[in-house]
Structures are given as C-alpha cells and as structure tokens.
Amino acid sequence: MNHFERKRGEMVCEGVPLRRIADAVGTPVYVYSHTTLAHHYSAFDRAFSGIPHIICYSMKANPNGSVIRTFTNLGSGVDIVSGGELSRALAAGAPPSKIVYSGVGKMEWEIVEALRQGILMFNVESRQELETIDGIARKMRKKAPISLRVNPDVDPRTHPYISTGLKKNKFGIHIDQAVRDYEWAARRRHIEVIGVDCHIGSQLTEISPFLDAAGRVRVLVDRLIRKGLDIRFVDIGGGLGITYENEVPPDPQQYADGIVDAFRGLPVTIVLEPGRVLVGNAGVLLTRVLYTKPSQETDGKAKKKQFFIVDAAMNDLARPSLYGSYHAIVPVAGSSRRRVVADVVGPICESGDFLAKDRELPALTGGDLVAVMSAGGYGFSMSSTYNSRPRAAEVMVSGSRFEVVRERESIRDLTRGERTASFLTRRRGKA
Ligand code: LLP
User: Would 215 be classed as within a structural domain?
Assistant: First the structure.
C-alpha cells in the first residue's frame, strides 16, 4: 500500500496535493511519502518477528539521508556497496554494528574505512578479496568479520541486467567451491568467519527462486557448522519485487515464512537487505508537460500517435530506457479526457530518452503536471547530469507537511571541480 491517491480529482501524497509541491519547488521533483516508507519497513520487520533478524536497508535503491534516517529511526541497519554509501549511512544514524558491506570490487581505502568503523561484516565475493581484507586487517591489527557471498546458481527469472545469482554472473563465489574458501578463511589470523551471504537478483515476483537459493544456502550452512565454523549470521540479500503494472509479487509475510522455514532450527540471526520493496512505491517523480506534438506513426486504429514532451528525462529516471521498465504515468489533476496513444519523452537528445512508450493516456496539454509512479527506488539514485541537466530536487511528505530533503542542483553544481587546462587559456605568442 502507499499514500499517493486521488482525492476530489487531484493526486495527493498523504495530506499534500502534488500540485502544491510542484508550484513551490518546481519540476522535475521526486516526492517521497514518509508514512509509506515507515509502513513498508514495519510490515517487513513484523513479518520476521518470529526469528532473530536484522534488516539492513539496501541504500543503493534510495540513498537520500532522510530516507535512510526514516529506517534507522525504526531500528534498521544498512547494506552498503561503497565507501560513499558507508559515509552516508553513518551520517544518517546507522549503527556500524548493523552495516553489511557487499560488492565485487571493494577498494583498499573503502575496506580500511569499514574496518575502522567496525561494521557488522564484509560480504566477500572472491578469494582475492579475502586475501586483501586479511592483509589490510593485519596492518590495522584488527580482525575482519566476514561472510562469503555464495552464488547458488538459481535463476531469479527477472531482467537479465538485475539477475545476480547465476553461474555466469560476476557475483559471489560458486557455492560448490565455498567450503574450500571458508576453510582457508578460517585459518587466517585477521579474519573472523561469522556468516554466509547470498543475493540472487532484484524485482523477483515469484517466491520459488528465493526458496531454492535458501535451500542451497541451508545445506552449506549445515556443512560449515559441522566443520566447526561459528556461523552466526545468514544474509539472504534483497530482491523482493513490487507492483509496477500488474505484477503480483509475494507479500513480505509469505516471503518471510519461506525464509524462516528454510533456516528453522539453526542458531543464527537472519540478515535481510531489502531495497526496492521498502522505497519503490513510496515515491513518485513529478514532471510537467512542456509540449505535445503528433507523431508520424499511427496507433492500432489509424489515429496519429502523440509525443508528450515532459521536463523529466532519462537522466532523471533511467529505468524505462535502461531496462524497458514500466512506470505508470498519471495526470495530477484528473479530469475525464479523451484517451490517446502516446510516447512520454524527455528533452534529451536521443531516441532512447522516454518514460513511456505506446502508452494509452489521457490527452495531455502543455503545462499539465503528471506523476511517474513507483519511482522511489532506483530513481534519483541512478540519475545523472547527462545533457548538463541539473539533478532534480527531492521532497519528503509527512501528513500535511512537506520539506525539501535535497535541493535541486544548480548550474554551478554542474561544473564544480572542473578546471580549464592551463594550456588552453595561455596566450599564444605571435606567429
Ligand atoms: N543486496 C545486494 C547485494 C544487491 O546487489 C541489491 C541490489 C540489493 C540487496 C537490493 O535489492 P532490491 O531489494 O532492491 O531488489 N537498478 C535496478 C536494480 C539493481 C539492483 C542491484 N542490487 C533497477 O532499477 O531495477
């Protein structure tokens, strides 16, 4: 459930009309509902209440400090993948004891910083990374808590770019080789083996791949415990999908029941790394129609298709261009207008710049505001300044209040840190 709805014909977020936000802050702007975020977190947390667990919000989905803070205020930890994320997580109140660090390419300075902060564990993705962490921990006279991210070779049946648990993917250590690496790790003086980790992909709409993966991880955990390793944490990653169009993903309780069942009887704490399921439907991207024009193409009924050119583009929301993802688009002021087939496109200079293609929509006109739905996850976090477009503002709503939680970037921000090479401005001598 979420708190974006139509009231008396107008889209509101909680108690605030979206039009008011657009008028005050301008467009494009991301709008997040604090109540929805908190509600999603609590539902997820409650689903696992029967077993010891730690929720580590996967902040790559939405790293805005106020979003992270919403979850840390409710007891959440954070799943990070970079030194930048570590710093932002700590600034947003995440206790280091609830931070897990995943990713195939951790750099030396990032490992040093995570060790210095005393995070819960490194989810290690290769033997070489293990060796590097061991070496750094030795120099720092510390013991690095680790789990190995195992790749269970399970097909998550999602978009190929966001599948991670297949043999051919770059992630993790193949589950069949993991015991060997665990035994090696257990002999290192500066490594403390504490867990097993696995993440198979994102936007999963079926439960069976999760259960297959959990079953395989369980077999491994049993083996490791029999070998005398002190496995205290099983991190099952993230990946639970949401409804963008008409997908019917498992609900958190169903997902939790499956996971709890798979690890029943083990003396471990389950670590979860949900991203999208907490934030996806808690945010929208508000954008204004700039122009409309007829396309040279016709729709199925020989009527001309339309282009709706809006002020948000692929640099603001990359998902449609990158994955062909569907995001519902709704007019903020709803009136019963005739429907047309249109491409909703941005101002960027490539044909891949679209938010919707061949979409049946109410006939829009210049100045209309529209909300691009389900944009709270992997929306702003994947945005860029392509075409020198300053990144959008972000707003958080709570009840009848709203606040800017990140200012729109300015033109000056675009060139921050940039310098003109001196040899380009030196005056040339006379010829
Ligand atoms: N844990 C790990 C190790 C991950 O790699 C990810 C996501 C998550 C947790 C969180 O997954 P979630 O619960 O959000 O599905 N940009 C893509 C999604 C990329 C997901 C990358 N990893 C998109 O817009 O669909």
Answer: yes
CA 34 vs CA 193, 281, 400, 403: distances in Å = 37, 11, 11, 11
pTM: 0.96
Residue nearest to atom 23 of ligand 1 (CA): 378
What DSSP character marks residue 206? -
pLDDT tens-digit series, residues 31-88: 999 999 999 999 999 999 999 999 999 999 999 999 999 999 999 999 999 999 999 9
- Cβ < 6 Å from ligand 1: which residues? 58, 61, 79, 102, 162, 164, 199, 202-203, 237-240, 273-277, 319, 323, 378, 382
Q: Are residue 147 and residue 296 in the same domain, yes or no?
A: no
H or E element at residue 423: helix 422-425
Q: Are 226 and 372 in a shared domain?
A: no
| Each residue's pLDDT tens digit, 188-238 | 999 999 999 999 999 999 999 999 999 999 999 999 999 999 999 999 999
For 388-399, what is the mean pLDDT?
98
* Residue 145 domain-assigned (yes or no): yes
Nearest alpha carbon to residue 319 among 381, 368, 364: 381
Measured in angstroms, how far is the CA atom of residue 239 from the centroid of ligand 1?
6
CATH code, domain with 409: 2.40.37.10
Q: Indicate the residue among 208, 241, 276 that finishes a domain.
A: 276
